[in-house]
Each structure stands twice: as structure tokens, then as C-alpha cells.
Amino acid sequence: DAMVIQNPRYQVTQFGKPVTLSCSQTLNHNVMYWYQQKSSQAPKLLFHYYDKDFNNEADTPDNFQSRRPNTSFCFLDIRSPGLGDAAMYLCATSRDYLENEQFFGPGTRLTVL
Amino acid sequence: AQTVTQSQPEMSVQEAETVTLSCTYDTSESDYYLFWYKQPPSRQMILVIRQEAYKQQNATENRFSVNFQKAAKSFSLKISDSQLGDAAMYFCAYRSAFVTGANSKLTFGKGITLSVRP
User: Fold this and answer.
1) Core-most of A63, B4, B10, B47, by most CB within 10 Å?
2) CA angle (B43 as vertex; A33, A109 as ends), nearest 5
3) Residue B64 has what pLDDT?
4) Is the Cβ of A73 closer than 8 Å to some Cβ of chain B?
5) Quick check: A19 contacting B, CB < 8 Å?
6) Distance from A90 to chain B by nearest Cα, in Å?
7) Which of A24, A8, A2, A3 is nearest to A88 (CA)?
8) B64 interfacial to chain A (CB closer than 8 Å)
9) Phi, psi angle pair for B102, to nearest 5°
10) Residue B75 pairs with which residues in a beta bridge?
11) Which residues in chain B have their CB less than 8 angstroms from residue A53's CB?
């Protein structure tokens, strides 16, 4: 089935140790989003890509970077994770900006020790 | 900036009964979309129902319906004949209809955890 896949589902890293989260999609959608969802809080958009065009939210910390090497894959890099970065990270896709439904992956839960 | 508020963190419903989840939002835009997403434990978020602000008729999807009150900026979700599989976290979300890159994002509420009692 076409879907949005996130790996790993659970990631444990140490304070300050770089970590990369992965998202892939078989929907062939143009837009890919990364959301951060902290416990008991609303998911918050970090950035998104339209094809290879990167769009950063104004309040996303510089510690967070992203790469999209092709249509199917998108990566979230956290250069120096802090304790405050522990959260669920959600990847989502949409066909284009006019398509208002976003399709979500199951998320990666990041723990920072 | 738009905001979405879900003031009830938790609700519980008896199986086969009806439950209503509340959501309010704030925006200065005249046209937009509203959504309810369901996030079951350890599973991905899925779209339950959507409402286009320019449509007066409330959206309905099987057992799920909304009560959209544009003037009051209220968007509640009614689940009829509740089933055990309805237990999940439910998020209300907003998206502008004036589509640019930045406006394509969803603005979410904090969510409400719904439990269903057998």
C-alpha cells in the first residue's frame, strides 16, 4: 500500500550527539513536512519541502536541518540534540499546495539522555 | 496568526453512545479549511473529516459529523455510535485557503484523548 514510512520508530540519542530521522513516501507527493510534537502539545511545523525547494519556519532552531535527496525521501537532522528536543517527530506529505489533505507517517519518538 | 484551541484534554464515552469533542479557533481570514485528525496509540495520524469554511453545510462522514459555527469560530466533532476503535487522540486543525508555501501548513490544537468504555 502507498504510505508514509518513518524510521526508526524509536530513537535514543545522547545529549549533543547528532541524530538523523528518516521519512520515505510511496505517494509521489511533491510536498513533505516535518512536525515536532512534544508531550501534551500540538504538533508544530518545523519546515517543509516543495520538491527541492526548502521552506523553513521562522522559529525553527538552527539545530534542526533537513535534506531531501529525491522525491521519495526526506531526512531530519538534529545537529546537537538537547533535552528539550525530546519529542515525537511526524513526517507528512501532500500532493501539492492545493491538496489540503496531509498524509502522516507513524512518527519517530526521540529520547535524549 | 491563527490559533486552534482544544480546551478539554480528555473525554470518555460509553460504547454505542454519542460524544462531542470541542474546538475553537481564531483567524482573520475569510476562507479556510478545518480538519479533525485521529491519532491512535502508536499509529499514524489519519484524517477523519474536513470542512471548507465557505460551505454552510456541516460535513458528515458516516458516524462522524461536525457542527461548524463560523461566526462563533467553533468546530466540534460528533461521534455517533462510539466504537472501541474510536479510542485515540483527536486533533483539530486549521489551514488557510489562500495557498502559498507558508500557508499550506496545518495549525493544530493540543488534542483531546478520547477513551471508549466497553
Assistant:
1) B4
2) 65
3) 97
4) no
5) no
6) 9
7) A8
8) no
9) -65, -35
10) B68
11) 101
A101 by Cβ neighbours in 10 Å (0-12 / 13-18 / 19+) ranks as: middle
Q: Mind listing the pLDDT tens digit for each residue in B5-32?
A: 999 999 999 999 999 999 999 999 988 9
Question: What is the Cα–Cα distance from A60 to A50, expressed in whole angstroms?
Answer: 18
pLDDT in tens, B52-67: 999 889 999 999 999 9
User: Does A36 lie at the interface with B, CB-CB under 8 angstroms?
Assistant: no
The label of the residue with cell 469560530 reads B73
Q: Which residues of chain A have pLDDT under 50?
A: none
CA distance B97 to B103: 8
HSE-CB at B91 with a 13 A cutoff on CA atoms is 22
Task: Select from B43, B47, B50 the Cβ nearest to the Cβ of A106.
Answer: B43
Q: What's the pLDDT score for residue B99?
A: 72
What is the pLDDT at residue A40?
80
